[in-house]
Design a protein that fits this description.
- There is one protein chain.
- This protein is mostly helical and about 300 residues long.
- The protein folds into two domains: about 55 residues; about 210 residues, MetI-like (MetI-like fold), CATH 1.10.3720.10.
- Helix 5 crosses helix 7.
- It is built from 13 helices and no strands.
Length: about 300
Amino acid sequence: MVAAAPATRRQRQRVRSAALSGVKGRSKFFGAITFVLGTIWLVIVLGPIYYMILASFRNSNQYMTANAWLPTGGLTFSSYTSMFHGSGIGTLLRNSAELAVGTIVLVTVLSLGTAYRIVRRGSRYAAVSFRLILFGIAVPIQAIVIPLFFVTNKIHTYDKLYGLVLVAAASLIPVAVLLTVNYVRLIPRELYDAMAVDGAGQWATFVRLVVPMARPVLAVVSIYAGLGAWNNFLLPFILTQSNNDMVLPLGMYRFATNSEYGINVPVVMAFVFFTMVPILLLYIILRRQFVKGIGGFALR
């Protein structure tokens, strides 16, 4: 009886070691599969970007004759020179920046404030309001562009940059509210109770508790709103007319289609690459908070 115990213990240790080694082997296998699939996806994503950048450093003749994937045949900055001197890029960049910043500010402030009221009130009115806001997700902006045109014209915001900011923010708020409500619900109720014990009111609780803890989801919403406003082509095309309020996507389209000799593809590629840089910088600045925000949704 006494001798059997060590043997049984050793057997259990062998079984445990075998199980652990099997788990490690499977984890390595799935890790290798994940690495291969991730690498394939990275190539799929970066391939067109590399092609676009390489094409932007060629002229129209080299674009058609040189190797599309190798930097052969000589590279030139002529496409970027044409873009900066013939498209009014300064005005386009300023208008797009104003549109993106205004949209980000409106979407983040309104979505977080709405989420705070919906979560904290918990009444039937708040629940109905939340459902009505989410109904906007089911209505694509393309389906209501004609009513939007007449409404903006009626309230004298047509062909105005601030009117475009209002419409762009309104189209992005439903998804932003959905994200912020789900994140604000993760804030423990004990923290609200502690703020109430300290004598903090609704506004102080929102500013000192909700806003700091909601920074990750605000980063997600900011990138979402920035992308939606910066890359939007349909709304500026429908709701603006003058060159003073033209934004980058619309300016790129008009610059490419106004050529007498057809579309100059390298210049268009240079235009696209230039429009990508600011939004990439926004992501780089907010990437840590963005990852935290996505992690918070995953943990939920």
